[in-house]
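Shipment paperwork, digital attachment
Item: protein structure file
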Amino acid sequence: MQSKVIHLEEENALLHQRLFGRKSEQTIDPATPQLALFNEAESVAEPAAEEAEEEVVAPTKPRGKRQPLPADLPRIDVIHELPEHELT
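Attachment content:
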C-alpha cells in the first residue's frame, strides 16, 4: 500500500509539472516525442547550396493623419483658472 501511495504521489508530481511547469519547445522530453517529429526533415535532407537572395521589402503604407477641423466651425476658448494652492 505504501509503494502504491509513493507511485501515485510521483505520478501526481509529474502531471503537476507538465501542467504548471515551464513550457518550452526547445526542450526535448522523452515522454512527448512530438517535438522530435519536426527535426526529422533536417536530419534526412541534404544541405542545399545557399544562394544570395535579395531581401524584398514590401512598401509601407503611409499612416493616416487627422485632418484639421474646418475653419468655418465656431471656436470657443475656455480658460479654467485654479487657485494658487491647487496649482502644481
